Fold:
Amino acid sequence: MGIGLPGGFLLTSDRIESPDQNLNELNLLLNVLPKHITDTINSLPNKSDLLEVVMDLGRLPEARLINENLILDDNTISKDDLANLVQKIGFIGEDNRAGIEGTLHRVSVIRNRRGHIVGATCRVGRAISGSATTIEDLIQTGKNILLLGRPGVGKTTMLRETARMISDDLTKRVVIVDTSNEIAGDGDVPHPAIGSSRRMQVASPQLQHSVMIEAVENHMPEVIIIDEMSTTEESDAARTIAERGVQLVATAHGNTLENLIFNPTLSDLVGGIQSVTLGDQEAKFRGTQKTIQERKSWPTFDIVVEINSWNEIDVHENVAEVVDQWLRGYAIRPESRVSDDQGNIIKTNDTIRQNQQQNGSWDMNSRKAPLTDKQPLQKTFNNRPVHSLEYKVFLFGVSKDKIIAAQEESNISVTISNELRNSDIVLTTKTHYRRGSNLVKSAESTGTPVYVLRKNTFHHILDFLSTLAKEQGIDTSYLRANDASTQSADSSEILEAALKEAEDAAHEVLNGTFSVQLEPQKAYIRRLQHMLIDRMNLSSTSKGKEPYRSLLVYRQ
Structure:
């Protein structure tokens, strides 16, 4: 029988810690708190949802639970309350953190300018078996994995469970570099939640990089686990360890891969970026300016996992490729994974992020999702085979989203090339061709065919694909058959109506409406809606689950 946990985890009884054990460990934390605070917490019906207790001098004590914050007492915290707390906990290190021996709890203190303690955050530590099931297949690959996420989202919990899975389930030699004793708890004996992994404690946070190297040189690990990488020295040490053939699993603060790319201290973990000056010929072939940004080296970590919540993550399985695509301004699609209430892992590639070259940021609101069964756009030719043409098409002034939409509509696909020199055809518009662009001239000088569209519209691109298919001897009469024409016309009308709806919603928001929810639409239509909303300097995001996913429009 399964047991439900906060965040949507469902764990079987043979993989979850005893409720009595969790309660006993929570009581050990409550025992170090003032009695009047402990009594209030014990009276709470949702005591098991406790995340942390905040005690600041001269303020009311506060309990932070999963879904609410509560004031615990009418009396403010005194110096005696803090002094008694400090006496009951373990040694407070240079990072102003301490623990309770035999548990995973953490007490972090705040000091004034004279070094006196004036506040404390008592955080509940939990070992949640099954919290790493969303990345279990990634762990088994043996590749280096970096976990990203905001504070409190569950990075350390997932890292702790990862250490247990690798050491017990995969029977590998695992060493944990535990700088603040947060992974394996306080005391000389590590917490059983890490399985058979070994733990190396660190005397000072500034020495973490040295202990990382020491672990490799002295203890022959197959895997090293590191929490909270934050300095250049640690980044360099991680690269050294990776070059020695040891698997790395680590965490770092940052919501997305973009945060890491722009972090000068840690960007080397994903390869780093540098400015490169191209030669005239190379710049002409690429169709770019001469000075561009490129990845500096091979990433230390092969896989980046962005933890959005306890049960939802985004995965970048090929960091080198993703960083290259992002630097060139192309859209990237991380794999979204969600753990539902039954413990099933649902995987979708429905998130699109775009590096807007003018400001160097991702469009975090652009999303793609599965089709919904409420939409008339389901009237596609799903019973026909997809014709993959052996053409590499370079787009110049033509919307990539529209050619993707045309491919989905016609079941005729081509390869969209990112470089002119590797392309078989250049597809552009009449307007761009008349301007006499250097890129078009370069294509013509090398003998690359240039196909000119009258306009950058869905139907003109559809005609282009039909022409290519005919050259390959493919029958495209279905595109002009009565039923197909009707369906194509219907799809065109639905597309126009959807864009009109998005535009009307944008005007409503600009006129003062807080947010507007649009009707569910097909994936590529939502992409076009996102682009339209973005051009009007508003934000949009996809909401809902299959099969009712749709856009929400709001101010930035």
